[in-house]
Structures are given as C-alpha cells and as structure tokens.
Write a structure and sequence with these properties.
3-stranded parallel beta sheet, 5 strands, globular, 96 residues, 23% helix, alpha/beta
Length: 96
C-alpha cells in the first residue's frame, strides 16, 4: 500500500502548475499501479489539480481548504480506514 499525502499546492495562486518532474514521477507511479490512495489536506485551489489527482488514483480523499475554488464543495473533514489504521483528514484553518 502506497499512500500519497499532500496539501497546500495553491495552483495557480502560488505556482502555475505541479512541477513537470514531479508530474512525470507520479505518472510513472500510476502506470506501475503503486499509488493506492491519495490524501489531500486542501488548498488544491482549482478543479484541474483535483482532476489530475483523480487520474492518478481512483481513491482520492480531499478536504476543503480556505482557498479552494472547486465546483464540487469538498468536505470540511474526512475519516477513513486504511488497513489497520483509522485516519482523520482536516485542513486546519478551522482549528482555533
């Protein structure tokens, strides 16, 4: 089981896109069937980045960041079970 965890990519506000070398590495991992799940802590910021993650792996868990502008409203939090682990996912801007 290989789980990719990422967050705060802020595309296109802070970067035009995911770096090409990283995209190439992720595409290779997809071809090899290595990535079993993706967890994202929010602030993908656009639908194209979300769609790219869905192309890599069908099991994508993503929560809402304060700058996300994705048509489909993402949940504020998510809880999932992976193997023997129960994992909670939240962006963190809600925590005071």
């Amino acid at each position: 089981m290989l789980v990719m965890v990422l967050g705060d990519v802020h595309i296109p506000q802070r970067a035009a896109d995911i770096p090409a070398k990283f995209k190439k590495m992720l595409a290779k991992a997809r071809e090899d069937g290595k990535i079993t799940s993706i967890l994202c802590t929010g602030n993908l910021c656009n639908k194209d980045t979300y769609d790219f993650l869905k192309e890599l792996c069908s099991d994508v868990h993503c929560v809402q960041g304060e700058f996300d502008e994705i048509e489909k409203r993402l949940p504020e939090y998510d809880v999932m079970k992976m193997g023997d682990f129960k994992i909670g996912l939240i962006h963190g801007h809600q925590v005071t």
